[in-house]
Amino acid sequence: MNQHFSRPDLNQVDLKIIEELKQKVMEEEGHYYFAYNLLTKDIIKLFMIKYPQCSVCGEKESINLLKETAIISVNDRLNDGFREREFDEVIKVLQNNIESFLHPLFGLFDTHSRNISDSMPLISLYVTLGRRKFDAHGRRSTYKGSFFTSILEGLERFHGIAPPTTSSYYTSEQSLMEEKQQFISLHQFLRLSESLFTEDFVQVEKYSTETDIFWRYVYSFNDKRYILVPEEVIYFSTHDFYEKPHDKRYILDSSNGIALGSNEIEASIGGLFEVIERDSFLVHWYSKSSPLRVEGIENIGNKNINLMIAYLQSIGYKVHIFDVTLESEVPSFWVLLELEDKETDEDRIALYTTAGTNINPEEAIESALVEASTSIRSFIGYQKLIYKGVKPTDFMEDYRKIKKLEDHLYLYSSPKMRFAFDFAIHTKRIIDANELMKKRSTYLNKFSSQRELFDNIINKLTPHHEVYQANLSSRTLKILGFNCVKILIPTMQNIGFGYLYQNINQERIQQAVQLNNLDGETEVMNREPHPFP
């Protein structure tokens, strides 16, 4: 017998409940909606997480709107590292709204899974948004901590993909100059080689000052005012939400500098750490400057660090820890995993890089080790699925074949690429870990508030760099008690993926070598693509 399910008939009780729910939606000004199960009569209250670039409910960006969505904390004391709230407090906010985030029908995230990792839980969330698919990951010592960290990263990624508002400016630099508007040229972020445009396939368009693009307001910490910057250096996937001709891309930007926090300052600190981390590593990589090797790390008595190093050693890796801190003086470390048995372990990753930045040098090293210990097994499994029939030597023969993030990692799964790390592995600059902890405590326990800490880091940077903050927060995110920002420092080395799209900032490499008394070359010497994930 054929069976089929039809929509239950609406009775008078249902109609009355639906009318009341409609009234509630109006009272909440569209920030919430309700899912009413006609069979069970269950009602779920859900956040209205708006689709980026919605043509119906989208608002135009303005400076006033950016100020409205910013959370200015009245009590920004440092409670959890540089955080205002303890992690358990943040978890409660997410738990109270869990159906809004993770639900097969109504959630922002469709599903989640536990990834391949045996050192600690690695939880991944998956989203399809328009033409874009993305994932988010959480790594903590417990399943619960990893799960909620993945939701936080998912919210961060969601707000960094595309703007919740529409731009007030779609115009060219030439027109902005004629209108006497203050703006930052896209050329300050673009350092792609002219030879790129002779390739058979190019992922970006050629840019000129007469090209019409979208513009957004950012706040300049140097000038204490708002200024326009190209939208695509703020959001990393707007082209997936625009129709032609607005879907053109002139730079392949990344999520570098995007961070979530309980307020605007906290998010900005997190964004600064990420920009500083990438810049610190890449300056050493491209200039072949000898990093400072950290020895005796086990003697500082950090249980988590010692356990992760022991785990990595147990699966066959030697752990190199390098201090790569530069002029900001925010402790930054590079962790390099080197496979010990390179002869018989051909299916393993020979060389794997992670990094960490934090005001607490122990936490910076620990965060790099957490990423290394959780990611290494996951990528080993990933490369077996993705690179069937492709060998790392294929990339070695022609670096131009490296197109995406994973290709960078796969290249260095070959032990034949060890020569690219000689400048670091054979460094003669060595420091004892206990001495290092004293040396790198510039910001540790020196400030009582996030504002004090942030201002001190900014004061270290602004003599050498222009620092900008873009507020990516939606109204919904503010209601949840979070802000999302992106920190932009065009004079620092940004991360780029794909050999021809690394966007190497020659001026920054030269400046950093001279400013920090590094022993590398002021001309870019390391022609091998970076290994950073």
The percent of residues in helical segments reads: 25-40%
Low-confidence stretches: none
Approximate shape:
globular
For this structure, the quaternary state is single chain
| Major beta-sheet overview | 6 strands, antiparallel
Helix tally equals 16
| Secondary-structure content class | alpha+beta
Report the radius of gyration as a whole number of Å.
24 Å
Mean pLDDT: 92
Provide the β-strand percentage band.
15-25%
Secondary structure: number of strands: 18
Q: Ends: how far apart?
A: 56 Å
Quick take:
Helices cover 33% and strands 18% of the residues. The protein is α+β, with helices and mostly antiparallel strands and 533 residues long.
Write structural notes for this entry:
With 533 residues, the protein is an alpha+beta fold. It has helices at 12-27, 63-69, 87-95, 98-101, 143-161, 173-178, 264-287, 303-314, 361-386, 392-397, 405-411, 422-425, 433-439, 450-461, 475-480, 506-515; strands at 32-36, 43-47, 59-60, 111-114, 122-129, 132-139, 165-166, 169-171, 213-220, 225-230, 258-261, 292-295, 317-323, 332-339, 351-357, 430-432, 468-471, 483-488. The strands form 5 sheets. Strands 8, 9, 10, 11, 17 and 18 form a 6-stranded antiparallel beta sheet that branches. Strands 15-14-13-12-16 form a 5-stranded mixed beta sheet, with helices on both faces. Strands 4-5-6 form a 3-stranded antiparallel beta sheet. The longest helix has 26 residues, at 361-386. The model has no long low-confidence stretch (mean pLDDT 92).
